Amino acid sequence: MGVVVATLVLQVALPDDMALRPWWLLPAVSVLLVVALLLVNPGRMTQFSAVERSISLLIVGLVTVVNAWSAASLVYGIASGTTDRAGAVLVTGGIVYWTNIVAFSLWYWEFDRGGPGRRAAGRAEYPDLQFPQMADPDLAHRDWEPSYLDYLYFSFTNAAAFSPTDVMPLRIWAKMTMMLQAVVSLVLAVMVVAWAINNLK
Question: What are the domain boundaries of the chain?
Fold first, then answer.
């Protein structure tokens, strides 16, 4: 949850023409949702909760929508020639790129084997994503389960390599989600970073 809060704080640092308006709306709503999530489950998740899952998906959806808006505004600004500040483009591109990684890591976290609640309750039979520890029993304890940081790492490597690395997608939804993330990351890398570096003075 700390990673999500820190990522939402970064959205406040976006230039005015790249941020969702009013600028305080997303942080305010997200803080309320995080507080509600902590009230529903203040400790370690040990069982499935429909209320908690709904709040979690709402937070992920908010982060995704705002980041998509920022990315579209940035790409449109570059394509239309209305954005000419290389420094601002680099900062915005970095924030959008990182937020994209966090948003997709949360989608993977929430949907792999039905989400953290179902994984903790043992209600998920087959994995959607295969981590190396699942393929080789000598690499980890037999009851090993991926933590959020495992999904964050997976999302980062997919965004950087534009392909699977050590974690393999087994379900269609996982493959399509990885493909979408790779496309967004590729567009940001090609259009944003290349343009900004070329225009640095």
Answer: 2-199
